[in-house]
UniProtKB/TrEMBL annotation:
The gene is Mtrr. One of its GO terms (molecular function) is flavin adenine dinucleotide binding. It is an enzyme of class 1 (oxidoreductase). Keywords: Amino-acid biosynthesis, Cytoplasm, FAD, Flavoprotein, FMN, Methionine biosynthesis, NADP, Oxidoreductase, Phosphoprotein, S-adenosyl-L-methionine. This is Methionine synthase reductase.
């Protein structure tokens, strides 16, 4: 902790995909301009800081993952502060400000930050600055930027108050030997004037930042190449505005080439705190017909030679590579096509101005360039504004330089959202759109986030199929648009589809289609257990499953498991089971027609299906969506949930399905209980609290 103790604050971040870390680094970088020093650490590095003895203000930036969990890097920290033996004044000495990151598309918005915030308050810690909750659904920067702007004055005031408190303690000590109260009065006056000066200093600093940008940018305003707004072209008022752009992030890495001799690290080294397994794909089935809007595949993995264990309802992660053609294309644009198989060493640049600079953990110290671009960096990531700002310096064309400045500026925020974030534009798209932009390799490693593994719900039961693990997915498609001239498949789903192409048989949409063994192709996976999305511990408890489309995936595992239990324990009492399933067309994407088998053997008590795009000649139109069928069975749903203390599971798309199902359940509870909506909301909240209303959803 080498920071000036009078101007120091502790900066902690907890990140899952790198966003919280990037924001913390931005705060750390800006601190110097405000005369402050950030002592920055990942929240998992508990050997490098100690909140129990921390006297300086603490700033925490924390994201949320899964269904409202703190990120993996915060697990130990959260467990530590959740200790019920801690007294209510444990952190009474602590003053902090917290910035939570989340996505309002999900039920438990910013719950990682809220959990830490709430617990710190319970343990006596005090806010020196209001908590910020940033929403990735509409753009994190809408909250992050103003939150950081206001942070500096709050920090300075907190440090001055701390200084005043220490001074007061000194005065109290002095009073015991001297009757004069004058020192305290003078100190009070000095404090108020210092705070006022701080406000003026901060306002002056912000004004000079804006002024310098105006002077820097005034000669970069280029006439519009055409009048249509697009990724590469702006229109007034943005095209004529003086811009507030982010500070240029300091470069901190250097890349050295070391020939072609050596060996790449094992993929397991890319995953922290997890055990990885390379398992063969033994079966692949296309569940949808060729004319279906989406293509759904079922893959079966052989885990018999591993210690991989799971329960129905769990998820697991696939470690996937970037598309090989895109890697080659990127190498070509960077002028490194001949260097892809060369080994490179990535080290911290000597003399870098970046404080606490270190090689990113997901980048090997030594590997081939192609290994880094294939397995380590998310080259499909939507570029953040700090990356755009760095790309400005690598762009030679004045018009392109100006447009990149606009896209990373506050004035161009709506353009950034529309043409980059909402269009899922990636680095390759930008390099094609701005051909004079020639970034260095170290810049890409500094700014591209870690290539994330992809999570999938298990669609099988180890009890029903020992040594096998099945999962279902749609091949994700990104159609071409004005900002992205070529269509692309999802990073992982596209790779898996290509990998199992020899196993696929067209027009097969039953689960029992036999595929040929294809043990030569293996995929790396690791477990991702789900703490709550499991079958009721008591088999006599009834439950309802709602899973349209590939949302049915975990419920196949539920039903397989239940069927095997019924066979093994004929003397047990089993509760009734309901499944609500929906898809577009009965003959194209009814994924698991074997559901009828579960119905016939008694494993499934009630099966309710709907087809949203099929036409009907019936006098009364059949229900189109799962919400519609659930509404038709309002009394039964209420009985299962409230009278029989049953469970309600939802899996699938959140925005277009899960939210609608929740609204339907609220309507049903209100109607059947003859209660107002507020009372129904309380009942639903109770079900969630009791872990009887469970969701496994995605946006």
């Amino acid at each position: 902790m080498c920071c000036d103790s009078k101007r120091r604050f502790l900066l902690l971040y907890a990140t899952q995909k790198g966003q919280a870390k990037a924001i913390a680094e931005e705060i750390c970088q800006q601190a110097g301009a405000h005369g402050l020093e950030a002592d920055m650490h990942c929240i998992s590095e508990m050997d490098k800081y100690n909140l129990e003895t921390e006297k300086d203000p603490v700033v925490i930036v924390i994201s949320t993952t899964g269904t409202g969990d703190p990120p993996d890097t915060a697990r130990k920290f959260v467990k530590k502060i959740q200790d019920t033996a801690l007294p209510p004044d444990h952190f009474a000495h602590l003053q902090y400000g917290l910035l939570g990151l989340g996505d309002s598309e999900y039920m438990f918005f910013c719950n990682g930050g809220k959990t830490v915030d709430r617990r710190l308050q319970e343990l006596g810690a005090r806010h020196f600055y209001d908590t910020g909750l940033a929403d990735d659904c509409v753009g994190l920067e809408l909250v992050v930027d103003p939150w950081i702007d206001g942070l500096w004055l709050a920090l300075k005031e907190a440090l001055l108050l701390q200084k005043e408190k220490e001074g007061m303690n000194n005065v109290v000590d002095a009073v015991t030997s001297s009757p004069s109260p004058a020192p305290h009065v003078v100190h009070e006056l000095n404090l108020s004037s210092e705070v006022q000066n701080l406000k003026l200093e901060d306002e002056g600093a912000r004004s000079s930042d804006v002024l310098s940008q105006k002077l820097d940018d005034i000669n970069l305003v280029a006439p519009a190449r055409n009048t249509e707004l697009s990724l590469v072209n702006s229109v007034p008022p943005v095209s004529q505005a003086a811009l507030n752009i982010p500070a240029l992030p300091p470069e901190y890495l250097e890349v050295q080439f070391h020939g072609t001799h050596g060996k790449n690290p094992h993929l397991s080294s890319l995953i922290s705190e997890e055990t990885t397994f390379e398992v063969p794909v033994t079966k692949a089935v296309q569940l949808t017909r060729e004319n279906a809007i989406k293509t759904a595949l079922l893959l079966e993995l052989d885990i018999s030679d591993t210690v991989f264990d799971y329960q129905p309802g769990d998820a697991f992660c696939v470690i996937c590579p970037n598309n090989a053609n895109e890697v080659e294309e990127l190498l070509h644009i960077l002028g490194l096509s001949e260097k892809g198989d060369d080994f490179v060493c990535v080290k911290v640049k000597q003399g870098t101005k970046k404080k606490g600079a270190s090689r990113p953990q997901h980048i090997p110290e030594r590997s081939t360039l192609k290994f880094i671009l294939t397995w380590c960096l998310e080259i499909r990531a939507v570029p953040k504004k700090a990356f755009l700002r760095a790309l400005v310096e690598c762009t030679s064309d004045a018009g392109e330089k100006r447009r990149l400045q606009e896209l990373c500026s506050r004035q161009g925020a709506s353009d950034y959202m529309r043409f980059i974030r909402d269009s899922s534009v990636c680095l390759l798209d930008l390099l094609h759109a701005f051909p004079s932009c020639k970034p260095s390799l170290n810049l890409l490693i500094e700014h591209l986030p870690k290539l994330q593994s992809r999570s999938y719900s298990v669609s099988s039961s180890n009890l029903y199929q020992p040594g096998k693990l099945c999962f279902v997915f749609n091949i994700v498609e990104f159609p071409a648009c004005s900002a992205r001239p070529v269509s692309r498949k999802g990073v992982c789903t596209g790779w898996l589809a290509e990998l199992v192409a020899p196993l696929l048989h067209p027009n097969k949409n039953t689960l029992d289609t036999k595929g040929e063994n294809f043990s030569a192709e293996k995929i790396p996976i690791f477990p991702r257990p789900n703490n709550t999305f499991h079958l009721p511990a008591d088999p006599s408890v009834p439950f309802i499953m709602v899973g349209p489309g590939t949302g049915i995936s975990p419920f196949i595992g539920f039903l397989q498991h239940r069927q095997k239990l019924r066979e093994q324990h004929t003397d047990w009492e089993f509760g009734e089971t309901w499944l609500f399933f929906g898809c577009r067309h009965q003959d194209r994407d009814y994924l698991f027609k074997q559901l009828r088998c579960f119905l016939e053997n008694g494993t499934l008590t009630h099966l309710k299906v709907c087809f949203s795009r099929d036409s009907s000649t019936a006098e009364v139109a059949p229900p189109k969506y799962v919400q519609d069928i659930i509404r038709l069975h309002a009394k039964e749903v209420t009985r299962v949930l409230l009278e029989e203390k049953g469970y309600f599971y939802i899996c699938g798309d959140k925005k277009h399905m899960a939210d609608g199902v929740s609204d339907t359940v609220l309507d049903i509870l209100s109607m059947e209980m003859e209660a107002d909506r507020l009372e129904a909301m309380k009942i639903l909240a109770m079900l969630r609290e009791e872990k009887r209303y469970l969701q496994d959803v995605w946006s």
